[in-house]
Specification:
154 residues; 7 helices
């Protein structure tokens, strides 16, 4: 019984550690939802097989999100009309090539690996997204409800 308690206790601590990053991801997803309208996302990241993957991977590089915080943002992009490959490329490129990830790589690895790691992350993201668009099953994006219209007095 003591082991079950310890597992639950450690799981709770992990949940608390991850929740901060998830909340930051939800904040970034909300900001992207407000400033990037669904028609723009659909136009640039929703049509085509290669260009949207490249753009979403490139767009994900400067955003400082970890692997936990990128999930709500990628889900938001998908809901706004990004295709599967673009959302997948964003999910891979963002944590692999963020500024924080590059700084840790520089502290722990040599300068050559610091340069190679984000380049390899971008390349992996693009290849995975393109593979998803060509050979993966496409999942329909859930629709975003439109805001209710104001009632006019009459």
């Amino acid at each position: 019984m003591n082991m079950v308690y310890e597992i639950l206790k450690e799981s709770w601590h992990i949940y608390l550690d991850v929740s901060v990053y998830m909340l930051f991801g939800f904040l970034v997803a909300g900001i992207l939802y407000v400033f990037f309208k669904a028609d723009k996302i659909k136009r640039y990241l929703g049509t085509g097989k290669i260009k949207p993957v490249f753009l979403s991977a490139l767009f994900g590089i400067p955003i400082p999100l970890c692997s936990c915080g990128v999930v709500p943002v990628a889900t938001g992009l998908k809901k706004q009309g990004a295709n599967d490959g673009a959302a997948l490329a964003f999910m891979i490129a963002t944590p692999e090539s963020g500024v924080d990830s590059i700084a840790i790589s520089y502290a722990m690895l040599d300068p050559v690996m610091t340069i190679i790691r984000p380049v390899a992350g971008f390349f992996t993201a693009v290849c995975t997204g393109i593979a998803q668009n060509y050979w993966g099953k496409s999942t329909p994006a859930p629709s975003i409800p439109s805001p209710p219209l104001k009632e006019t007095g009459g």
